Amino acid sequence: MLSLLVEAVILTTVASNTDVDEVDKSTTSNEIQHHVEAVFTLEASVQAAIILTIAVIIIILNTLIITSFSNFRGTGNVLNIYILSLSIADLLCGILVIPLSVYPALVREWVYGDFMCRLVGYTESIVWVVSAYTLMWISVDRYIAIRKPLRYDTVQTKTRCQCWMAFTWISSAMMCSPPLLGDFSDPTFDGDSYICMLNWERMIAYFATLIILVLGPSLITIVYTYTYVFVIVRRLKHGYLSHDKEYVTALTEALASPNHTLSIVLILTFWILWVPFLAIKTYEQVSGHKLTMPHLHFVVVWLGFSHSAWKAFILVTYSPQFRVMLRLLKFTLFIYRNCNRTELLGYD
User: Fold this and answer.
1) DSSP 294-322
2) What mean pLDDT do residues 235-243 have?
3) CA 154 to CA 147: how far, in whole Å?
4) Exposure pattern of 162-175 as b/e (b: 16+ CB <10 Å)?
């Protein structure tokens, strides 16, 4: 009887210890889960804050650029038309594309439906193609300024440049429309960068066509035009040009324009910020292997989109005319504010 009682006590003690261990394990597991969820929430909040910051900066700076150009009534150069086109494209990206990635970055999924996902992919494709083509036209403009300095004003008229920009927007919209209208490409949400993109894996032929029609002409034109400009600068520096004095004088004045440095910096900034994304995307398409480095896709995608914010800083640094535009805009706003205040006082 005593032995049975001792055995019962031992079994009760073991069972109670087992329950305590299970409770401790359950508590530890819950603590780990809550800790992991807290870490994920912090990471999602930081990434959403980065995307929101990029969107706000792009909207503010490009609105400032467009307002400054619209307020300017002086005799500007045709380069302003191209910069205005770039700013409009970047503003559309900052309003229609980037803000829609803030909330998905928090919840880790796309919540706006397939049509909006496809529309975002279509919009960002148009914006990118327009930017690439516009930078190509900027390089052509600088080439003509050096190649034909005496006829530059008659060749590069504002009307002609506006027609080129209209053609660029229309052709880009048509070129990027098949994924929006067709059924051969379902929209894809990139869970690493939290943005909708075109599903290039199902559109290899279309993707290759875009590369031929966009990257090919753009890069070839930029390389050719600026190679010619650098060769002419070198020849002029060493006195190898065999032209008349009028041509050399006009060429020297053209080369002294700050628009050359401005255009080079704009083009280099765009391609340097987008090359990492293009390189990684091309590697993954060719090899069929997706790189799994943490935050790699997030960094390269939003590094590329950040080019839309750098344009204002480049203009302030390298464009004396834009600095004048900013002063005129500030003066205009000051006068407008004082006039409204005077009207209110007179009314009272």
Assistant:
1) TTHHHHHHHHHHTHHHHHHHHHHHH-HHH
2) 71
3) 13
4) eebbeebbeebbeb
Q: Which residues contact 261 (CB under 8 A, 6 or more apart)?
A: 318
Distance of alpha carbon 240 from alpha carbon 287, whole angstroms: 49
pLDDT band, very low/low/confident/very high, at 208 (cuts 50, 70, 90): confident
pLDDT digits (tens, 9 = 90+) for 225-236: 999 988 888 887
pLDDT of residue 271: 94
Could you give the domains of the chain? 38-347 (1.20.1070.10)
Strand-pairing partners, residue 90, are none
Q: Is 55 exposed, middle or buried (0-12, 13-18, 19+ CB in 10 A)?
A: buried
Show the DSSP H helices in 72-157 as ranges. Answer: 79-96, 102-107, 114-147, 152-155
The one-letter amino acid code at 167 reads: F
Tokens read off for 212? 């031929």
Distance CA 225, CA 221 (A): 6
